[in-house]
């Protein structure tokens, strides 16, 4: 389900009204289930291998599809249009005026495969760099969409020899950054009793530097120590080097059948008043920490280091999007604060996020006790029993500094069962929010959100365009 908060001018420049709306994304598979008035698709991702195989077969025989299109991961904007997406299917266009679902975006029929939840706008050109990963060959295909969103300008199979759970892609001025990690999807593994998704600790990991319009042979691969990562923060060129920054863990952060709640972190990773976490036997291999790789294109060597310590596990990073693909000074992330068991499962555990971190990439901590050269990190801590999701950075219009703006996020208080939207001044990051907006109902925890300015039009199917004099926060 999409949740949207609308900020609309009501007269004077400083007067705004706020309204809330939500609506299900009307995917093809949701319409099937609505027509039958009940859930129909069998779960076919995790669990007993034989059960997954049976679910595959039954789903395909009944509906012609193996999995449900959930469209629940991200909302993004390109060429004046807004899309909801999950990486198992193509995006669905969304009318931001009323959250009505429009057509599936297959780029004029040219894109017939899954579509990443994290496309990137290339600096300079405004083109959209995309990819689609699949459990069957071709495992990874990269595409470049025109800046006006009407044409697929480039499409290439990278000819990987395995299906890797690649969730993100990076861009620089000249290159696409490909992440190939040993978190793999293997249908064949199911037939021998294994898991569909598994972290292969003895497998290989590498990072690829691909010219914007390159092919499989043009990718320069750099072997790195095996790791797990879902989200990049940014990538950029610096002399002979390409710098890649992401939230890396040494082991799989997906809780599987061999991981339980205590393996990841304690019931609550308590933050003290100074924002530092109190260690309680935490498995640091499963912490997502900011890591920076430097890939030298001339010497073909790679170096890397952690830029944050083990006091906080970070996820769902964001930056000022005007700095995507170029050198930047700041990043932001949600802080893992505790875990909860998912509904209907005594084994599966999910993280909850009790605050935000501001990553000051150009400033270093003066820590004599640490051998690592760590960056400065500011902490904005939510109140007790409050947890956030869907955070987005919003640049101040006319702002002169990279960090001149706000973090806006949905926040739920589990004690009062109240949902709010918090707005945090990123230049006064550790202070109180500049606004807290109480919502008329609970907003469940989710993944990524986006903030849409008033230069976006409300499109659905073949409707005429209508420009909206408002700002929208959607997740």
UniProtKB/TrEMBL annotation:
What is the top-level taxon of the source organism?
Eukaryota
Q: Does the keyword Oxidoreductase apply?
A: yes
Q: Which GO terms describe its cellular component?
A: chloroplast stroma
What does the record say about how the cofactor binds?
A: Binds 1 Fe(2+) ion per subunit.
Q: Which cofactor does it need?
A: Fe(2+)
- Would the keyword rRNA-binding turn up in this protein's UniProt record? no
GO MF annotations for this entry?
carotenoid dioxygenase activity; metal ion binding
Keywords assigned by UniProt, alphabetized: Dioxygenase, Iron, Metal-binding, Oxidoreductase, Transit peptide
Q: Which Pfam families match?
A: RPE65
Binding residue positions for Fe cation: 118, 167, 231, 448
Example GO biological process:
carotene catabolic process
The record ties this protein, via PANTHER family, to:
BETA-CAROTENE DIOXYGENASE (PTHR10543), OS09G0321200 PROTEIN (PTHR10543:SF145)
Tell me the protein family, please. Answer: Belongs to the carotenoid oxygenase family.
Kindly provide the name given to this protein in its UniProt entry.
Carotenoid 9,10(9',10')-cleavage dioxygenase 1
The species this protein belongs to is: Triticum urartu
